[in-house]
Write a structure and sequence with these properties.
It is built from 15 helices and 15 strands. By secondary structure, the protein is of the alpha/beta class.
């Protein structure tokens, strides 16, 4: 990968040539082709979808559905009808919780994990509370992986939902999704399985058929796409069994019938006017990723993560606690750490003054921090526009910051 050429594809580096952006897990930077695709929509057609029968509207509908087909192909869905567009991972997971709510009773339990982002923890916690079901939490091991033996004990005949992440947004651990799902299916074939793939799609190869999850959620903005756009993949047979939970235009066949008739998925779950420009931009972002190659992106990001772990350990020794996957094969683009004598918030602010962008705090993963007995961490997350030189400059500034603090 020629990083110099890749950085030229991102206009932000023209405006901020000294920027070292190490916060792509929060949101990835946007390439010019994505920005141009959104601008082209607003300038050249700017019409609604699935409503008008004049050429401009039909052009917009075609572009919109082409993005759906692009997403479906990218994640290996059997059909574009398994792709529902939402406002992001959070919206996708909350929609899933709402769709499944009527299936949960006080005799049931819901299983999630201590590794989760709040978006894949709070909806299940609230659903369990609302329906008086039991919430069960799979712990993490000392190596930062899910405790699979504990999972086997927590899933039983009353488990209606299991929700877990493909990749930790704090530790960068890549979970063995297919293996975990096989374990769950062996214990309860009726359990609905949801995977939070926000930190996986675009970073590692994702094949939803091979994974065999019932639902998979991810966001466009974490894979170089626009903000305010997300995807909920759902198995088509399951989607068409579920009743919609939001109502309005574009999702109904007969609103006047005594028993309202709704369209099949995905339309029945996409009431109202969506983020058309953003969804078209998502298609452009995926095409951009495919032009580089997911395998190449993964190799580059994990190489940087491993280099960061080694360089940080060498620079700070016993004064640093590095939170990352112990097995290099399970490591993604994310590395978190704590540094003796430097609070993560102070560290992030002072690094920011040198145009080095990192994340600090609980990373929207309080249960994991509590399990690790940490009040906050500093997180590095790498992407295709980062180099080992960025890490070297980070360490130089960290040494200066420790002296200051």
């Amino acid at each position: 990968m020629n990083i110099t050429d890749i950085k030229k594809a991102f206009p932000i580096f023209t405006h901020h040539p000294d920027l070292i952006y190490l916060d792509s897990a929060a949101t990835a930077l946007k390439p010019a082709v994505v920005i141009a695709s959104e601008q082209a929509y607003y300038e050249q057609c700017s019409t609604n979808i699935a409503r008008g029968i004049y050429p401009l509207a039909e052009q917009t509908t075609t572009a919109f559905e082409e993005s759906r087909a692009t997403v479906a192909r990218f994640i290996g869905a059997r059909t574009p009808e398994e792709v529902i567009f939402t406002a992001g991972t959070t919206a996708s997971l909350n929609l899933t919780a709402d769709l499944l709510a009527s299936r949960i009773t006080k005799e049931d339990n819901i299983v999630t994990t201590a590794l989760e982002h709040h978006s894949n923890f709070l909806p299940w916690k609230e659903l369990a509370k609302r329906n008086k079901a039991e919430l069960r939490i799979v712990p993490v091991t000392e190596t930062g992986t899910l405790h699979l033996e504990a999972l086997k004990k927590l899933v039983d005949n009353h488990t209606k939902i299991v929700a877990f992440s493909a990749t930790s947004n704090v530790l960068g651990t890549i979970n063995p999704v297919s293996e975990i799902i096989r374990i769950i299916r062996s214990l309860n074939k009726e359990t609905v399985i949801i995977v939070d793939a926000a930190q996986a799609v675009g970073h590692i190869p994702v094949d939803v058929v091979a994974w065999d999850a019932d639902f998979i959620a991810f966001s466009g903005h974490k894979l170089f796409g626009p903000t305010g756009v997300g995807v909920l993949f759902g198995k088509q047979t399951l989607l068409n069994q579920l009743s919609p939970v939001a109502f309005g235009g574009g999702m109904v066949l007969d609103a006047c019938a005594l028993e309202t008739l709704y369209k099949d998925a995905p339309a029945r779950f996409e009431a109202g006017t969506p983020n058309i420009a953003g969804i078209i931009g998502l298609g452009a972002a995926i095409t951009f990723i495919e032009s580089i190659g997911v395998a190449e992106i993964h190799a580059h990001e994990t190489k940087l993560a491993r280099y960061a772990c080694q360089a940080l350990q060498k620079a700070f020794g016993d004064d640093i606690r590095i939170l990352a996957a112990k097995n290099p094969e399970d490591q993604s683009s994310i590395v978190s750490f704590t540094l003796t004598g430097a609070h993560p918030h102070d560290t992030a602010q002072l690094l920011g003054e040198h145009n080095i962008c990192v994340r600090a705090g609980l990373q929207c993963a309080a249960p994991l921090h509590e399990a690790l007995n940490l009040s906050a961490t500093t997180r590095l997350s790498f992407s295709i526009y980062n180099t080992e030189h960025d890490i070297d400059l980070l360490i130089t500034r960290l040494k200066e910051i420790r002296t200051i603090l």
